[in-house]
Amino acid sequence: MGILEVKNVNKSFSGLKALQNVNLSVEEGKIHAIIGPNGAGKSTLLNCFIGKLLPDSGTVTFDGQSLLGIPPHKINQTGVSRVFQTPEIFTDLSVIDNVMIPCFARRDGSFSLHAVKRVEDEAEVRDKAEQMLVDVNMADKRDMTASSLSRGDKRRLEMAMCLAQDPKLLLLDEPTAGMARADTNNTIELLADIQSKRHITMAVIEHDMHVVFSLAQKISVLAQGTVIVEDLPENIKGNPKVQEAYLGGAH
Amino acid sequence: MFSETRKNDHLLLLLFAIVTLAGPILLAPLGAGYPDLLQRFCIFGIFAIGFNILFGLTGYLSFGHAAFLGVGSYSAVWMFKLLTMNVIPALILAVLIAGLFSLLIGYISLRRSGIYFSILTLAFAQMSFSLAYSVLTPITNGETGLQLSLKDPRILDATNTSGSLPSTNLFGLTMNSTAKVDFLGMTLQFNIGFYFCAIMLIIAFYISMRIFRSPFGLMLRAIKTNQTRLNYTGINTRPYTLAAFVISGMYAGLAGGLMACTDPLAGAERMQWTASGEVVLMTILGGAGTLLGPVLGAGFIKYFENIFSKINDNVLHNTFAFLPDGLEDFVVSILHVFVGKGWHLTLGVLFMMVVIFLPGGLIEGANRILSWLRTRGKAGDNTAESKETTTTKTAVNPAE
User: Fold this and answer.
1) How far, in Å, CA of B9 to CA of A248, rounded?
2) Of B390, B395, B400, nearest to B364 (Cα)?
């Protein structure tokens, strides 16, 4: 039994079948990569995990609890965090404030009226946020406005924001897209480090095979809305079905 | 006093308090040293500070805040009629009723965001305005407006035997009583009503400052920046926006109550959409999302309203008497449309200029002048250093 169980999930958009009988099982503490050609339904699948989309049929359970029909903030409070393809950060706020918000969310739950203490006097939350910035090598950018960061830094900031919540499951949507080689390698190191130290379960969507094969302990290949193979990385490369899907031999 | 950083909050508050309390002296040379106008500065300052907590922090633009102002006024006047002429119970009721009213309107309106939210609040305010004019006449006294009368019970006050209407007071201190003092050849008036309003303004400013600096304020700012991320960070944004809406509604109620305290009557026109629009103008003109901006904007608009609307053709003719006759008439006929009843045209032009050239409002203008002065001051000693200060200045501005 995986920590995230996806069973027979179907989703169609005005007749177009985006997901067909998708089955997926993400094991606790592992990095699970979801790969597949463009339009295979990878992002749609991820959207079904965080309450952004509701599948037409099927079940998605996390830690034994169904995630379907629950508002996004409640799903997040159960321990699911997501890094988006285009970084979703608080662009008008400083880097440290960006990380403090998820720390507050972790401590206080979905709503609390903390209007008396000043933000910087909340020592416990502030220290945690500072530590998070050190972990992602961004301590020197603490006081910059998030909008002025480079694209790679925005991604790292978003990752820091997700990690600050101590998630049980981290969903990453193309965490290295548009990154320079050096940044990509840094991200791989960072993710591998987090996984070995904190044992956070991760589901990663990725196009870059270098990233996939350096990180993944299990790979699911999605093509035309359905999982065609789920196997260990070493068995994926030589699999004829995978090659067919990528080279467009299907139909 | 315009550089708003977290460290000098206490200094900012102190300066704000001093400037507010010394208002009659400081503004006397500008022709604004009289209590009636000063009270209006304070009252609209409170209204704009409250509005800024909603609009400046969360970005939700309400076009119906005058409804809460009106509700506050009506509640206060009813307290004067039924209970006592003391202003404290009246203000408490005004804030509470406005709070309840904004809870109801906010709960429904906040189901939508953006333009739909604005339209919903506008619709509610116009509904309140129409109701106050027609169906609710027993409570609001319709077109005439709610006024005091000699027959009112006022159960806590001693029986009125003077035959004239009682005036509002603060534990015996009559609101419109004035102490006159001669100062540098000018007669200054120390008005109880003004000082009461001024203290309320300082308290309102202090509370808003605490909200700005608190985790709650940080969440409100985050809502303005990226509501999606906040949802996927485990935060339910609705209670936050509703809390901000109710707090700003209570500020409006306090402002409405104070209006009734300084002049105990309440009319439906206080709830009209133009009044709601005015507070939007004040906040944007001063600088939405800044601490001082809304107060500055409120003072600015009320001051110029006062100045420009008093100018008539005679004043213009006197001012331009030095010009040749034909030219004088020409200049006066052009300026005529900008003054007196046409002062809104001046306001419109000013507002457009601010929005186009200073999107951050008067506060941004002040900040630009300050940083320009600093850069220029340092340019002589060390060019590189001054460059560094300007870049850090643009990078961090936590107060905004």
Assistant:
1) 64
2) B400
Number of domains, chain A? 2
Instruction: Report pLDDT digits (tens) over A199-234.
Output: 899 999 988 888 898 899 999 998 888 888 888 888
From B346, B327, B328, B330, select the one nearest B338 (Cα to Cα): B346
A122 contacts chain B (CB < 8 A): yes
Yes or no, beta carbons of A101 and B233 under 8 Å apart: yes
Question: Does any domain span residue A84?
Answer: no
At B319-356, the pLDDT tens digits run: 888 888 888 888 888 888 888 778 888 888 888 988 89
Q: Is A183 on the interface with B (CB under 8 A)?
A: no
Contact status of B10 with chain A (Cβ, < 8 Å)? no
What CATH code is carried by the domain that includes residue A229? 3.40.50.300
Q: How far is B1 from chain A (nearest CA, A)?
A: 21
Residues in chain A, how many?
Answer: 251
pLDDT tens across A119-151, in order? Answer: 888 888 999 999 999 988 889 999 999 999 988
Give me the helices (H) in B226-290, please.
227-231, 237-262, 273-286
Where does a domain end: A111, A141, A165? A165
User: Is A8 in the same domain as A47?
Assistant: yes
Residue A152 forms contact with B (CB below 8 Å): no
Distance to chain B for A143, nearest Cα, Å: 6
Range of the domain at A154: 89-165
ipTM: 0.90
Contacts of B213 in chain A (CB under 8 A): 118-119
